[in-house]
Protein 1
Amino acid sequence: MQTRDLTDSFGRVVKDLRISITDRCNFRCLYCMPAEGMKWVPREEVLTFEEIERITRICVENYDFTGIRLTGGEPTVRAQLPLLVERLAKITSPVTGKTLDIAMTTNGATLASMAFDLKKAGLNRINISCDSLQRDRFAKITRRDQLDKVLTGINAAKEAGFAPIKINVVVMRGVNDDEILDFIEFGRANKVTPRFIEFMPLDADDDWSSDKVVASDEIISTIGSRYAIKSIANNSDPASRYAFADQKGEFGVIPTVTKPFCGSCDRIRLTAEGQLRTCLFSIDEFDLRSAMRSGSTDNDIKAIIERAVGLKWAGHQIGNVNFHRPSRSMSQIGG
Ligand code: SAM
Ligand code: SF4
């Protein structure tokens, strides 16, 4: 079977599919969800494993996608998750014969019970989110007192053989920006890679403001004031990567707000209820679930994907007067 590049009107080739497999979550992080009153997508509207597998297969067989990331909401709250991973791990590129690089982003709280099963099922890479190493502060940020479970989850992922493990840290001014060096020390001691993410205007509480963003440059200079560091190549990863001169690991920064990487964006996103989005900040969505449930052929689905990608915009406008916040918050899109 012949594949072709899925190219947008700015010449960017789409290669990476981010799949939200649930909008539900066992945490209520203040930069993502409201404390109470979150309205969940009714279960019958959430894509089934068969539907997720079908869209993934169409992307791989027609456009040679090389990677997918499972996210949410919290992906580990979806029942039978290892089964889904096992199914996705069987999809191969008709060109290279290779299987997909399957990654997952998780809050880690229930990872201990399934890390081995996920590894066995074919999950390749894992990012675990943790925004504070202080128990009280962690509880305030996530609105759950479960730092110990997340740390256990990180250990379980190591024991299951995931490497490297990345630790996603959303840095917020006046909330946890005094812990940057603590995370660096944690990363070096535990052989995991911290990735500092700029706070984005995707919080359900609509509390974001630019003064709460800690710029990646500031994060790098804080770390550089303590350690000798050097920039390293980052392939298509949105993170700018840095290594320690003493070779004890690395860290990354994700400068979505202050230095957007839209020009090299190679991803599209699928929400839990099957809406295709070409950007985290998209206003438009393309309804793949209705298409699949009304008997569309693979060619019909391809046409929708190609139309969506053809309309992908040059980049988000955070900080500009034309910026419109998407109506969905992060957990409803899939980060
Ligand atoms: N529940 C999983 C987790 O927390 O890792 C996966 C979904 S979560 C939406 C994916 C990533 O988005 C997490 O690393 C989280 O910290 C990040 N995130 C959520 N809201 C954000 C925001 N407003 N700005 C920046 N990052 C955010
Ligand atoms: Fe849940 Fe992840 Fe959002 Fe936190 S960031 S509320 S863990 S989906």
Protein 2
Amino acid sequence: MRKPEKKSEVAIIGGTGLEDLLGEAEQILIETPYGLPPSISIGEIDGNPLAFLRRHGVRHSIPPHSVNYQANIYALHQMGVKRIIATNAVGAINTKFGPGDLAVPHDMVDFTKSRRFTFYDDAPVTHIDVSQPYCPEIRRILVETAKGAGIRAWNRAVLVCTEGPRYETPAEIEMFRRLGCDVVGMTGAPEAVLARELEMCYATLCLVSNMAAGMQKRLTAREVTSVAGARLPIIQRILRTAIKKLPENRDCPCSCALEDARLRRLNDARSSTF
Ligand code: HPA
């Protein structure tokens, strides 16, 4: 890995257009044991170094189910990133939510099918706690900042992540609604969990781009892009302010997520499994 000139402990994982947040940016490619992520931009906002990773690749060519979430998160970890703020476009399942709203999810349901979802396939057997799947500190700052931005922002939401790349059927959405999900997207999982597995803070700012399947006549990719385009300046402003508000030291459970996650080895006389 070539050492970047600037070192950033904060990264954004987001979509096309958002990277304009950074002024002059250095592009770096980082090999990981899990493959090669898209090039990562490293620049500055308001004098603070910031890394930016385009989840769908530099030319938006990687569909949600083919994103190499492991390589993306691992590359940021290798660079020394400690905090990730993600952005996702989502459809609204909760009828109170509407297109153009923002939501900062507090919980998640993973309905993906084919993704590599853990760094811990081998010993030591590791069970990460996701009782609070998103970093409470970054969530608080995002909620507070989004509330001041003059648009509707939901401070709690259950995000269900589907496999894609197709949108959901109306029956699937009805099922998710009955399960208590508020918004649906295709990129929330396993990204959040992989970050927690490496003790990185992670929270996401979601933009509602449409009502979910069965709640409006049809869904189009164009609608998603046009709502996202319209909200881009506000989202950039929120991210910029939120990053400035991040305290220097982390005061959240994310940074010690591995502490109680590992089983003792079986040859340890005091341990047992059932
Ligand atoms: N479903 C899944 N992903 C999405 C949607 C949706 O309705 N809108 C934006 N991303």
Protein 3
Amino acid sequence: MDTAIRDILQRSQRILAICHVNPDGDALGSLLGFGWALKEMGKETALACADPVPPFYQYLPGHEEIVQQPVGEFDLVVSLDCSDAQRMGDSYRDEYRRLPLLNVDHHVTNLRFGTFNLVDLEAASTAEIIFLMLDELALPLDPPIAQCLLTGIVTDTRGFRTASCTPRVLSIANRLMAAGASLPEIVSRTLDRRPLAAIRLWAQALPGAQLRGRVLWTEVTEAMRAATGLATVDDSGLVNFLLTAEEADVAVVFSEKNGGQEVEVGFRARPGWDVAQVALALGGGGHMLASGVTVRGTLPEVRERVLALLDESLAAQERAHRIT
Ligand code: 5GP
Ligand code: MN
């Protein structure tokens, strides 16, 4: 953390922190871990997310304090786990655009949109960056902070299994457990649990899975969602599952939303491939091995366009591999 970032954090008294829309464990864990730490520093804080906290994250201490629309005056806005300013959604109101913005993130596609940018591409999660920040500020860890930050680490590494999981991640996890975080509780709440409706939705989406070269893809229609009663769009479990197919190097799930006008696309890749660039080219973002974007258009239109772009991108990567 450079001195300008340390100074702005110490000088600002009223801080608004915002995580990304459609929040995952790292968005919420880093938002709440940071929020608890700001309280310890004696700051007035507001925590915001443009979408509600999903029920299975409601074990996180302090989740009930998160608002969709912040109110009040602030000296500083902090974005967490967002690779561009649009990821803050409606929580980042127009009137906040004149305030200094601190961008804390770990996505390779981060657009450095802040007045200050604390972007660490080596970090497996934004929660890890928050941990290092608290360590530098010599703030004590307590069980609520530890539980929130370990949630971010566990969910973004899918239980310490991703290529991003470094020795540093494991030693930070060690310190968070020693400070009172419960690894079994986090794993059972986030990784090993999903609504039955999600499983029924997979049962409908899996028969349509198609292999195109080394890309395994399927789609989730709004009709399937209506039939299972699963209202929210979070198909990351499904796309992770597709990538376990031996025949696939890349998996894609296309999920219809907003009355068929938009499609949310989730990409996953095996190490050695890069799906961040194709997501970025479409206006989204993410990591080399896990990325996403929402594209306007009908399901068949978006599917054809995205699969063609993906083919081109993978072919270019293959050529580059052969040369190097
Ligand atoms: P998931 O498929 O789990 O929703 O997302 C995988 C990764 O891609 C996450 O790191 C997430 O932040 C990023 N991502 C997903 N959707 C979008 C999007 O619409 N825009 C951007 N910038 N990133 C996204
Ligand atoms: Mn993250």
Protein 4
Amino acid sequence: MTPPIVLIADLQRYEGQTVTVRGWLYDRTDKGKLQFLKVRDGSGIAQAVAFQKELPEPIFNALRSLPQESSLIVTGIVRADQRAPGFPGGYEIGVTDAQIIQVADEYPITPKEHGIEFLMDHRHLWVRSSRQWAILRIRATIISAIRNWLDDHGYLLVDTPIITPTAGESTTELFEVKYFEDIAYLAQTGQLYNEANMMSFGKVYCFGPTFRSEKSKTRRHLTEFWMVEPEMAFFTLEDLMAMEEEFVSAIVQRVLEKNRMELSILERDTAPLERVVAPFPRISYDEAVARLNRLAAEASDPEEQAALRIEWGNDFGSPHETALAQQFDRPVFVYHYPTAVKAFYMQPVPGRPEVCRSVDLLAPEGYGEITGGSERIHDRALLEERIAQIGLNRDHYAWYLDLRRFGSVPHAGFGLGVERTVAWICGLPHIRETIPYPRMLKRTYP
Ligand code: 4AD
Ligand code: MG
């Protein structure tokens, strides 16, 4: 009888049975007559023990000289052993037969330390390493949690275009594409189209890659990143915050349910994640500025003082966001930012037009802004005025202004950056490992 082909993740169901596993050689420890092979198959990593006495000589010799990342098929008996290494671990395979599919060339990524640029140049291979494997599995959970939560709460997925004629967010960070005889731009956001779709479906979201030619070389910026953007008719800023805190909590709790093993591979302290439950604290921009200046005054180090001090009207930088977030044990909303630092479409605060009905969500532990949103201007005259003030071409926004002519309603929405969320939940120091193939100021390869 041919043994069943099984996944390493399911080995515990086959204790005492002979099974076949198909995958790649992750690592090998040579003990002469005994070869400890770490085999990975995509679902996990398991130790396969090859014993000279128990194998035909050509097979044992082939295994003994097999280079890292060679592909192979291993058959053997599943044994429970609490000390057996691997993920999920606890079971090993006593090899009775093996077939080598391809003998790999010398693999460039070895267990020793490599520089980050070297690893980035080999990203197509680096994705096989267990840390990267854990991160990208958590990313997949986050994406499915996002979609499931929205689908289950009455939001309709309506796609928005990537090739667009105008700026959606700001004119300074647009990627131009040659579009036949014309110029078009890669979408910075799907929001403006979302607003049109929202008028048809009530509650919608778009989810896709967005593009910004950010010249900033920071650990929080990519030039291509994935954003989910919900947009809701009749929502106020308060409705928006109430929805966002449920949504973000659900995403974090889903990862805690589904990815304990991956979080432990990353050595992520899960205590701060367990605390991510609604409600989240809310502070105004005014209060945030006051808090920062108070912290600056209390700081003993002059450099820290300078980093924290902020004049009313300026946007926050990373040190500001980090310091603000540190004051709370869960994500914190900052609302009513100065109109001048936000996008043209945000509703001014009644009686105080220098601030707008915007809200950013700052993640704990120094991860900064993970969502940005607002109430939108729904009055046509006011929107036209803002478009003119900013110096945008009115004709390009004719269709968007139409939305304010045919049953305009108050509405609100936000965007959540997937990679910032992955960095935060995984506890990563840099955003570059949160996406399979990062695009940054100086990187488009591989
Ligand atoms: O705050 P942003 O620019 O908001 C918008 O684009 C709105 N149109 C969204 C909306 O209301 N529908 O971006 C939203 C989020 C940020 O909070 C951040 O998480 C992420 O997108 N983000 C980036 N992530 C990685 N790299 C970048 N360069 C990013 N820029 C924004
Ligand atoms: Mg923002």
